[in-house]
Amino acid sequence: MKSSAVHMSKRGSPYLRRAIWMAGAIAVQFDPMFKAYYEKKSAEGLRYMNIIGHVSKKMTSVIFAVMRDNKIYEPVLPAA
């Protein structure tokens, strides 16, 4: 049986988690890649807070990739 009560992990630094959450909320307004991702998730019927959680997870992956590869961040827009 699949559980519908999925919650955000509370492991790690709460300060870092909040900072990434707040950065995600701003990124959907100003960054074209995250804005497109927000609109995609919104079209899927997700609610705002849930979408920001998804954006935060994606942002964490992007931050990790930028640090791992030692490259400058360049937004990648999905093909229209």
Category by helix and strand content: mainly alpha
* Uncertain residue ranges: none
The value of Rg in angstroms is 14 Å
Strand content: under 5%
> How would you describe the shape?
globular
The end-to-end distance, rounded to whole angstroms, is 37 Å
What report would you give on this structure?
The protein is mainly alpha-helical and 80 residues long. It has a domain at 32-71. It has three helices and no strands. The protein has helices spanning 14-30, 32-43, 48-69. Helix 1 (14-30) crosses helix 2 (32-43), helix 1 crosses helix 3 and helix 2 packs antiparallel against helix 3 (48-69). The model has no long low-confidence stretch (mean pLDDT 89).
SSE topology:
Elements: H1 14-30, H2 32-43, H3 48-69
List the main descriptive attributes of the protein structure presented here.
80 residues; globular; mainly alpha
Quick overview:
The chain is mainly α and 80 residues long.
